[in-house]
């Protein structure tokens, strides 16, 4: 009964993922197109220092995404091994072999999920067919849920990296302007600063649109993700929210006193936007953060104590 409920949750999660993908195809397309195009191209407005800082950020994000991908492969292999061998082996040794395998109550206990069939599953070709269908369904459900978790973590990692890159370009706006002046033989410093900052502002707007697509797509789907690796999902949401507010510090650290009145106005708009953290919601019930994870643990511990006290 317990294992059947567990797989029922997995299949429900898979159904939720497919439904969400069907109803939010435009958001998925926007996310994939934005990330696939590199989010934003600064052209020839990046100085050497900014390029080196950006390379460090992107290389760290790439390492983290590769780690998540390896984790995904490891989890799939582990799940397939457990489904294929461990469950039936443990059950076979925990009960009498004759009682385990040769029962006439219609329940096939050799399957990943012990369940009742309205036909004689002891016939060889029927038993093989049941094995194939049920294992394929179990593998697909587990792979789909884990893949959704890993995809969320990778997309969040890339978005966090883009927020850091936008902050770097704003902080180094004067350096970039000097580089543009030297490259284009243009002596107008204010004009070059305006060009550099306009790229940073456009990048920031692109990131905000990407975050909005993420918020819409994962609004209900995060409920499914929380049933899996809750601590990784909450930690990723916490880092995501934290980095969405850091660009105002990067702007303050830049040489904003040399900016024109128009550019200061645009910078002030970005600072005001940064005061409101960008968060992902768990179906509208709570924010995706470590505080939410702590509440989940606290509630779980309270229920455990309640059940333990009623024994």
Question: What would you say this structure looks like, in words?
Answer:
By secondary structure, the chain is mostly helical. 77% of the residues lie in helices and 1% in strands. Strands 1-2 form a two-stranded antiparallel ribbon. A hairpin with a 6-residue loop joins strand 1 (107-108) and strand 2 (115-116). Helix 1 (2-23) packs antiparallel against helix 7, helix 6 packs across helix 7 and helix 9 packs antiparallel against helix 10 (261-274). The protein is elongated. It comes from Rhynocoris fuscipes. One of its GO terms (biological process) is signal transduction. It is found in: Cell membrane.
Please name the defining characteristics of this protein.
2 strands; sensory transduction; 11 helices; 77% helix; two-stranded antiparallel ribbon; elongated; Olfactory receptor; membrane; transmembrane; 311 residues; mainly alpha
